[in-house]
């Protein structure tokens, strides 16, 4: 059995400069990387690096860039039989002008987004999976179709993002594990979630709606992992941050890998946070997780009782 990731595939152009130019000016690029990218691809590559059999469902362009990123995913150990080719390949430009500060420019053509028909075409791939990871930034109709298909075939559903408002109730019913970053948590709560207490309250409401585990990012604090009879706060890593791009994708990959190993929720949160920390130490969103593929990861976890 495999994990199937359903989400964006694209080409990443990462540029690091000494500073941003004024209008009409220019600046020197001191480092440049061109990578396989997109949230779905990043999660899939991270899972492969962690030793998890993984397949990817997404769209690349019917162009040279599409062929290149598909071939790179295959070299990374990802099953690309569910990758669809049409239109233009999505392009993401990540501009880093100082450690930890970035600007992201996205060209995501309509043709690069998944449709319900794409999901139906890949049903056999989903049916052969024990877990399906959904990137909720894809169109609502497509992610809902994927969630229904996964549930019908008995796969656990991991969702990354904010469930679409027009289908939120049904979507939450299909989700086993929900991860939301700080911006997505604010959308779910209707206000910024800036403390562990606020995150626990939001997670409690989400657990009542369907998921069995919820992981929420809290700005400048860390990640809170909540399950029906407990919670654990995983503090932020003290390691230097070069580029935050892809940290959430690495977190999801680590969370899935740990849960598939049989880790308890607190242990899974610890591996997920370690994966995110490993990602932000490098330029670009491509994960660097092979060093975390062993049975355990050290880190700071504060367990508690659900409130």
TrEMBL record:
Keywords: Kinase, Transferase. Gene3D superfamilies: 3.40.1190.20. It comes from the Bacteria. GO terms for biological process: phosphate-containing compound metabolic process. One of its GO terms (molecular function) is kinase activity. Residues 3-286 form the Carbohydrate kinase PfkB domain. Transmembrane segments: none annotated. InterPro entries: Carboh/pur_kinase_PfkB_CS (IPR002173), PfkB_dom (IPR011611), Ribo/fructo_kinase (IPR002139), Ribokinase-like (IPR029056). It holds the Pfam family PfkB. Belongs to the carbohydrate kinase PfkB family. This is Ribokinase. It comes from Mycolicibacter sinensis (strain JDM601).
